[in-house]
Design brief:
The protein has one domain: 3-Layer(aba) Sandwich (Rossmann fold), CATH 3.40.50. It is α/β, with parallel strands linked by helices and about 290 residues long. Strand 2, helix 3 and strand 3 form a beta-alpha-beta unit. The chain contains eight helices and 13 strands. It has an eleven-stranded mixed beta sheet, sandwiched between helices. The radius of gyration is 19 Å and the shape is globular. It binds S-adenosylmethionine. S-adenosylmethionine (SAM) binds next to loops.
Length: about 290
């Protein structure tokens, strides 16, 4: 397996139980939903969430005919599958986002929330995402903002040695990065994306505030200032809606591309998807397309 970029592996980590359920993050969840609802194109044929985890946000994709949930951790996808079931509407793919196993231009919309902070090579990841979007297709993303108010204050008080104003990503723990808004804007532009709208999210991510004020109230106020807050971007989390340019529509082709040889010629067999280009067979494990073993 090519892991030259490093992968933050969530396999078997019970992310939902450890991070969300009863962990005091209702406010963050609600505030993120407000931002996503505002930025997502409401309808489309096919949406892909990359790094979808257990499918926390999937109910926001109701206007799409088909929903692809892609994640490196099969355990998260299995949880999503247990809740959402098996149908033509949901496609579960276990794969590395640096090697998306999808044909060019097959998705209308792509989403990454709480994922880019695990990505060491953002430009490479963005190039891959741009490739699978149809011309004009939307990419809605969230990133962790290094130039947030708390980091600025801590830096000013000399409680933090790294500068929130330096453009390069800051790795605060292994494979956990905060990004400067200008750096991210340039990376997006370099991959062919144009930013259309933004929202600054989680203005009130503070334990005392979260204890004192009900999550719904706090998230409602957050939602009402997310758009204006995007002008100065001082929150720990930033959401953007972008679109990818290009005029060439998708050719008549299947959904998948072999992540090993790049062939679009994959044939369904009983044991999985067989690539006619390199002869690899990609297993389908109980309803999950498995492209992990590169
Ligand atoms: C913090 S969780 C966020 C899950 C979901 N987006 C949410 O907001 O609830 C990060 C997810 O990104 C996935 N991930 C990290 N690196 C990845 C990679 N290289 N390829 C695919 N998924 C990856 C992890 O497995 C994990 O499920």
């Amino acid at each position: 397996m090519d892991q030259s970029h490093g992968i933050c592996d969530y396999e078997g980590t019970s992310y939902r139980a450890r991070f969300w359920d009863g962990q005091g993050r209702e406010y963050e969840d609600l505030a993120e939903r407000i931002a996503l609802r505002k930025l997502l194109p409401a309808r489309g044929r096919r949406i892909i969430e990359i790094g979808a985890g257990f499918g926390r946000l999937v109910d926001l994709y109701a206007g799409y005919d088909q929903v692809i949930l892609l994640d490196y951790a099969k355990s998260g996808l299995r949880e999503a599958q247990g809740r959402l079931g098996r149908s033509e509407r949901y496609i579960y793919i276990a794969a590395d986002l640096y090697h998306l196993p999808l044909a060019p231009r097959v998705c209308d919309t792509a989403v990454t929330v709480r994922v880019l902070h695990h990505v060491a090579d953002v430009p490479a990841a963005l190039r891959g995402i741009a490739e699978i979007l149809r011309p004009g297709g939307a990419y809605v993303l969230e990133y962790a903002n290094k130039r947030n108010l708390k980091a600025i204050v801590r830096h000013a008080l000399r409680r933090q040695d790294w500068s929130p104003f330096a453009p390069e990503p800051y790795e605060f723990a292994r494979l956990n990065f905060d990004f400067h808004p200008t750096w991210m804007a340039q990376a997006l532009q370099g991959a062919g994306f144009t930013v259309d709208a933004g929202r600054a999210v989680s203005h009130f991510r503070h334990p005392a505030l979260k204890r004192l004020i009900p999550a719904r109230v706090l998230a409602g106020v957050d939602g009402s200032i997310q758009r204006v807050g995007a002008a100065w971007k001082l929150t720990p989390s930033i959401f953007l809606r972008t679109h990818v340019s290009g005029a060439e529509p998708a050719a008549e082709q299947g959904l998948f591309r072999c992540p090993s040889c790049g062939s679009l010629d994959l044939m369904r067999a009983t044991e999985g998807l067989c690539c006619r280009g390199c002869g690899r067979t990609w297993p389908i494990d109980d309803g999950i397309y498995d492209f992990k073993d590169l």
